[in-house]
Design a protein that fits this description.
With 308 residues, this protein is an alpha/beta fold. The protein has two domains: 196 residues, Rossmann fold (3-Layer(aba) Sandwich), CATH 3.40.50; 107 residues, Rossmann fold (3-Layer(aba) Sandwich). Helix content is 38%, strand content 19%. The strands form two sheets. A six-stranded mixed beta sheet has the order 1-2-10-7-8-9, with helices on both faces. Helix 2 packs parallel to helix 3. The longest helix is centred in the N-terminal third of the chain and has 15 residues. It is globular, with a radius of gyration of 19 Å. The mean pLDDT is 96. The protein binds pyridoxal-5'-phosphate. Pyridoxal-5'-phosphate binds next to helix 1, strand 7 and helix 8.
Amino acid sequence: MDTNKSLIEKVHFQINGNELFSFHVKRDDLIDPIISGNKWRKLEYHVLEAQHRQKSGILTFGGAFSNHLIATAKACQIAGLQSIGFVRGSELSPESNETLRACSDFGMELIFVSRDEYRLKDEPFYRNELALKFPTFYVVPEGGKGYQGIIGCQKILKETANNYDNVYLAAGTGTTATGVVLSANPNTQIHVVSALKGEFMSKNVQNFLYKSLFDEELVEDYLSRMIFIDDKRFGGFGKVNDVLINFINEVYRTTRLKLDPIYTGKAFYQLIEDYKSGIVKSSDKILFIHTGGLQGANSWKDKLDYFK
Ligand SMILES: *Cc1c(COP(=O)(O)O)cnc(C)c1O
């Protein structure tokens, strides 16, 4: 994957029709239309690990519209690896939607499992069963999390000046946020905008940090540089309303940036709200990390202007 495409762009966003708010955007969405943004960051070292262990392929997990599943399918095709995707929902098939069809077209073997079975995906006994059943496959956890995922995400800020006062990014598992804080300038405040409702994101990141640092004091130091925002405003994962859709259309009309309604649209919305309420200012050095994920916008095709 060519991460040179992932340039930094200065964006000027009009607030209330006159005032201009300026900041930088790290365009990881340009890395690849499918293996987009943080999904490549998280997969890069997993793919190397699979090759290093001389595995024939990668086995991983995802929901019906998973950005991670489709990114894995294409990354494996490019790397000459086979791929197996365990999909949540035994009622589904490769024809159920565009994401699953594309996974299948990239050569991924899809195995549809019940929600009860899917819930076991991180249990040691279940992993042992998988290892026995698919001995030549390297297992990547849902969302590409884990040590390799965190290492890969540490590259994002290293491709920037890394001198920001504030960095904004969207979060699902918190893997990307962990890699970002571990590689950030100590004076940078990281605003982690969760795509989910609930207060658990800081716990996720704390847990990932501990597994990377083995030191509680260091973990607390990194955590103190982070602000966690959960999705109270829109109601949780995949919840989308007209305010958000109109906002995404406005951002596209005025900046040409394409945001998806699940992750980056909500994170960008938070940045603009924080500007309006004075939490960040135009004179601050601000970076928004565009984590990609546009294929996840397909479900709102008829409402989003950038599809027209
Ligand atoms: C998957 C995804 C995320 C979540 O990343 P985590 O590392 O799991 O927190 C954020 N943004 C986009 C666009 C994604 O596809």
